[in-house]
Amino acid sequence: GARADEDLLDGLNPQQREAVTYRGQALLIVAGAGSGKTSVLTRRIASLLRNREAWPSQILAITFTNKAAGEMRERVEHLVGDSARGMWISTFHSACVRILRREAEQFGFTKSFTIYDSGDSRALIKRLVKEHEADAFGLTPAATQGKISKLKNELADAESYARTANMSDPAERVFVELFAAYQRELQRANAFDFDDLIAQTVFLFRAFPQVADVYRRRFRHVLVDEYQDTNHAQYALIHELTRPPGSDAAPLAGSGGMMIFEAEPAAEDGASLTVVGDSDQSIYAFRGADIRNISEFEKDYPGAKVVLLEQNYRSTQNILSAANAVISHNFDRKDKRLWTDVGEGEKIIGFTGYSQHDEAQFVADEIEALRRAGVDYSQMAVFYRTNSQSRALEEIFIRSALPYKIMGGTKFYERAEIKDALAYLVAVANPADEMAMRRIINRPRRGIGDVTIETISRYAVDQQITFRDALANSSALGVGPKIQAAIAHLDAVLAEATEIMLPASGELAPPTAVADGLQLLLNKSGYYDALRASKDAQDEARIENLDEMVAVAREFARNNPEGTLLDFLTEVALVSDADDLEDASGSVSLMTLHTAKGLEYDAVFVTGVEEDLIPHRISAGEPGGPQEERRLFYVGITRARQRLYLSLAMTRAQFGEVTVAMPSRFLQEIPLELLHWRQSPGDVNSRGGTQSRALNARRGGFGGSGSGSGKRYGDDLVPLARREPTGNLERFANKIPSKVRDNGDLELAPGDRIRHDDFGEGRVDAVTGEGAKRVAHVRFDVAGPKKLLIKIAPISKL
Ligand code: ATP
Ligand code: MG
After folding, report:
1. Alpha-carbon separation of residue 54 from 501, 650, 651 (angstroms)
2. Which residues have a Cβ under 8 Å from the Cβ of 408 and sit 6 or more positions away?
3. Which residues lie within the region annotated Disordered (predicted)?
4. Which atom of ligand 1 has the smallest separation from the CA of 12?
5. Quick check: 398 and 76 in contact, CB under 8 A?
């Protein structure tokens, strides 16, 4: 008979069909890039719904970014109509937040918990490191944070870690103390950090099987995209969710006999689980991702069906052959050969610039040429290994008036003024969050210093109330009348905003409540006024950013008429690298190679294909590092549909120093006949005379014979003319140093007064580093302390 999902199978190859229609407990789809893994997952969901095998609410699909989740939801809705509402299609983090908001009260949190991003958790760890004097044991905040994060990804807590660590080592003892203190502080603040969102959900399920069973009964179909990049905690979460309900109702260890569950024979099956992945695209080992989650899937889920997809529908044969050739240099992998019937296509184009600006100019020119040939800007993307590489590209793109959009690089939410605005909102949403309170209590300046803050904190501890509640008792604090008035004012402003955003009596706030409340906070707290009164040019940009923040809140209200303050804070906290505030239509997309995962474009430029960038310098010492870098390069080149460009620069200015770059080893892994050099490294040698011998020795194939004068190009340091920000380029203007200068050997000593083009006048506190890396530590009269690279900062001595 005809299937209700017949049209969903149109155009699929037999393996893809099987992946959509197989009905069993566990299904693993392994396949190379562009073979339709994500498409198949989407159709599989549509097919389950269309055949009425599942209600939308029984489906949980996990994607790698919120953006990917949005796209998948749209496609499913397109395939099955409106009935798709109620499905959970989200990232691991978003799904866990939803679960935790419902269940947090089970284990000592409230549903209004704050989500600490890595900056927040770094700030907290910094405070604790100081309090424990842990620096003396080599426990820097960064190292401590990294280690805690890694342990949480492995589902270890301070206690379990202490059992395995060598506790006779004093550094280990201090670390365990720090870890435990950090968790205590999070709990006290009613907050979870990013890693906690997943780990605590797993702990919750393990500690409260009856809670886990609610979700096991609800989600009958669990589907996970990009499974190769799951870490242990995520793996465990999926495992918990797909067990048969009732299967682990065992007596609880450590429950003090309060909760004893009888083990019952499992009457129901676990949810069906579908995972798709490509171990050649695993690029998050540094965040604990474990390829073994894929390679051992069949062991973990006995009887699992495995489907292989080998036809690629994305790229031309030339692009695929290059990808196959590169990835085949990784050992310890299952060889799979992708093929396509799209045809050979154009050759891959190589280009070597003298400098990164020269390289960027080539990219810009080529983009314009493609545009004239009919390729839409939105169908072109430029990738790089590290965020800092975007600067040269942006400078050239702005000069060429080329519309572009940085994906995940705007760091909007990391700006100080935006963090302040969010802290005001958090202070309203989660009064227990003392860190947010400490952040806003003297922003704008109200004359409340560290001494007063400690007074309030002590009062709160003594009275066993929150920091926020202590403000309401300003008269009991024993502070001077001016400070008391300032505290009372802040308290009143927070109370007024609370009334707007969180009306009492359970009444639903109007959709615009968050935006209105935010505006009120910024106005009545004096925040806007302080910026307006400032003479610092940067403060004008800050006002614009805050206006943008209010606009984001209004936009949120339009998209989520029933969205609450908590929903808004959740969304903001979970914006990930690849997610974006605005839409990129009509612009070229710029992003890191990591962010490019899962995406596709007609034309792709992979830039900076140099040793030390890709493979990155830091990967050299890591076990498996170079192999992971090769996978990253593979991810980059397999994003291209029609055209692929690989470019590099012979000289690169980084940290104010100009270094000579070497072509990446990965270039040599691409068969010569697939690559057409517009300008090879050899061409640059013979014309420019950079250090040629080393380059030619690396690879005869590059050709050219330079004279090797050793001249270093300095064009990256040429001052840029000050630009009048125009139109949509304005927002990027404050990201780019307005002036880059070559100061040569400007002599500075502590005590010198200097003037900076943007920051105004200041006093040099110290000078560190040597040669081109000399750094001045300057305390600016208005802008505060800054570190400047003396060689290129726009400064002069007074
Ligand atoms: P990646 O590994 O990069 O995540 P993927 O395996 O998830 O890739 P998709 O993004 O699902 O691949 O598909 C790649 C492209 O191929 C998409 O443009 C998709 O629409 C197209 N495609 C997939 N299957 C078919 C098919 N059977 N016929 C035509 N086009 C297809
Ligand atoms: Mg995909």
Report:
1. 37, 57, 58
2. 576, 577, 578, 579, 580, 591, 592, 595
3. 682-714
4. 27
5. no
